[in-house]
Amino acid sequence: MKKFTKVMSVVCASAMAITVLAGCGSSSDSSTASSGSAESEAAGVFKIGAIGPLTGGAAAYGNAVVNGAQVAVDEINAAGGINGYQVELRGEDDEMDSQKSVNAYNSLKDWGMQMLVGSTTSAASIAVSEYTKEDNMFQLTPSGSAVDCVKYDNVFRVCFSDPAQGTASAQYIGQNKLATKIGIIYDSSDVYSSGIYQTFVTEAANQGLEIVSQEAFTADNKTDFSVQLQKAKDGGAELVFLPIYYNEASLILQQANTMGFKPVFFGCDGLDGILTVENFDTSIAEGTMLLTPFAADATDDATKKFVTTYEQKYQVTPNQFAADSYDAVYAIKAAAEKAGLTPEQSVSEICEALKSAMTEITVDGITSRGMTWEASGEPNKEPKAVRIESGAYVSAQ
Question: Residue 122 belongs to what domain range?
Answer without folding.
Answer: 30-160+300-382
